[in-house]
Amino acid sequence: MIDEARIITQLKEKSLKEAAFNTLVHEYQEVLYWQIRRLVISHDDADDVLQNTFIKAWMALDDFRAESKISTWLFRIAINESLNFLEKKKKNTDIISNAIEGLTNQLMSDPYFDGDETQILLQKAIALLPEKQRVVFNLKYFQEIKYEDMSQMLGTSIGALKASYHHAVKKITDFFQQND
Amino acid sequence: MKDLMNEERFIEERFGNENPFRVPNHYFDEFPQRVMKRIAQQKRRRRMIRWSIAAMMTGIVFSSAFVLDNFRQQNATLEADNTQYIEDALDYSMINNMEIATYLTEAE
């Protein structure tokens, strides 16, 4: 665990900025990668989005006011970058059902996906969720992030997040009952 | 609430929490170096852009100074020509008829 206050001070010092940022990348790369990967699915896309996340963070460092934790700020950038990426991708795919079928083929041929057919079914169910519910479900179910932290990351009230999670869980169970 | 717990348990029992995704070997060992390299490139690019802008501005200042100086010089020449012309005109206007007649007689 890094000392946030110390890192923030170092990030403001021109001579220490790069080394401090390198520490940040080492510390948060994995947790951010998994959040991004669960949203964009493929490793190559996750790699691109993760790089862009850190580049954006580097360029916006002077604007970071330390009103939230660095990790929360980085998560927010990562989620925005992932959603922007998906938005661009969606424009290139005409129909959602095509995208879902494409997802099955993509996962089956992905050398970095070890899941079986049940896992592919889960990914399909998640992919069918509306954007916000997908983000909330991934953060809560897989990464066990607290609603309080999620609220800061997404700028949404805790009540709304709980409702989104509840809807997501319900839709996923319904999807299984229909497709099992 | 009870519904949510049941549904959550259903998903957990069916799929667990295991992560089916993998990353290439040494991915996280190499990633920080790749990002820092891109940041260094970004910094170099920004510095280049800043230098180009500075060079362009200097160029604009120097060319403007040159053009302005040229314009002033041309103006000064024109002004001198004009002064000469006015002086000649004044001289001619002060010649009286007597002087003209003398000049013409001498020319013959």
Task: Walk me through the topology.
The complex is a heterodimer of chains A (180) and B (108).
Chain A lengths: L3 H9 L4 H24 L2 H17 L10 H23 L3 H14 L7 H11 L3 H12 L4 H8 L3 H22 L1
Chain B lengths: L1 H14 L11 H67 L3 H11 L1
Question: Describe it for me?
Answer:
The complex is a heterodimer of chains A (180) and B (108). Chain A has helices at 4-12, 17-40, 43-59, 70-92, 96-109, 117-127, 131-142, 147-154, 158-179. Chain A has 180 residues and is an all-alpha fold. Chain A has 2 domains: 1-84, Rna Polymerase Sigma Factor, Chain: A, CATH 1.10.1740; 129-180, Orthogonal Bundle (Arc Repressor Mutant, subunit A), CATH 1.10.10.10. Chain A is globular and about 55 Å long. With 108 residues, chain B is mainly alpha-helical. Chain B has a domain at 54-108. Chain B is built from 3 helices and no strands. Chain B has helices spanning 2-15, 27-93, 97-107. The model of chain B has no long low-confidence stretch (mean pLDDT 85). Chains A and B meet through helix 2, helix 3, helix 6 and helix 9 of A and helix 1 and helix 2 of B.
The average pLDDT score of chain B comes to 85
Number of domains of chain A: 2
The CATH topology of the largest domain in chain A is Rna Polymerase Sigma Factor, Chain: A
Radius of gyration computed on alpha carbons of chain A: 18 Å
Question: How much of the sequence of chain B is in beta strands?
Answer: under 5%
Shape category of chain A: globular
Structural class of chain A: mainly alpha
Portion in helices of chain B:
over 70%
Please work out how many helical segments of chain B DSSP would assign.
3
